[in-house]
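Run log // design_07
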C-alpha cells in the first residue's frame, strides 16, 4: 500500500498540471477565434463548420424502434442463456473445483448473451431506420 501512494500522487499531480495547461491553451485558441470573427470574418463562412444534426418534431419513431429492439434482444439473450444453462450438464458435485468453475463459466453467459443479442437488436434497428430514411428521401425527390 505504501508503494502505491507515491504513484497515485504523482499521477494526480501530472494529470491536473496537464489539464491546467490545456485550459490556458484552449482559452488562447478561443480568444484568437473571437478576434478573427470580430475583425470582419463573415459568420456565413463558418455556417457549415459546426453542422449539428437537425431533429424533426416527428422523428420519435426511431427511438422507439431502437429501445424496443434493444430490449427484445436483451430478453432473447437472457432467454437463450437460461436455456443453455438448463440444458448444460454440470459435473458432479463430488469434484467441487470443476463444479464451481462450470458455474462461473455459465454465469458469464448471461451478460454476454444479453450484450450480443442487444447489439444485434440495435443493428437491426439501424437497418430499419436506414431503409425508412431511404424510402422517405425517394418520396421527397
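design_07 sequence
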Amino acid at each position: 500500500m505504501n508503494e502505491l501512494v507515491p504513484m497515485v500522487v504523482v499521477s494526480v499531480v501530472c494529470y491536473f498540471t496537464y489539464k491546467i495547461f490545456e485550459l490556458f491553451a484552449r482559452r488562447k485558441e478561443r480568444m484568437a477565434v473571437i478576434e478573427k470573427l470580430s475583425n470582419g470574418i463573415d459568420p456565413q463562412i463558418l455556417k457549415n463548420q459546426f453542422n449539428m444534426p437537425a431533429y424533426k418534431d416527428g422523428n420519435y419513431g426511431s427511438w422507439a424502434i431502437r429501445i424496443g429492439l434493444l430490449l427484445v434482444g436483451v430478453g432473447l439473450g437472457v432467454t437463450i442463456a437460461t436455456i443453455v444453462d438448463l440444458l448444460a450438464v454440470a459435473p458432479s458435485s463430488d469434484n467441487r473445483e470443476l463444479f464451481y468453475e462450470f458455474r462461473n463459466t455459465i454465469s458469464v453467459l448471461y451478460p454476454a448473451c444479453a450484450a450480443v443479442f442487444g447489439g444485434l437488436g440495435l443493428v437491426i434497428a439501424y437497418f430499419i431506420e436506414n431503409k425508412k430514411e431511404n424510402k422517405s428521401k425517394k418520396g421527397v425527390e
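Helices lie at 4-38, 61-87, 96-140.
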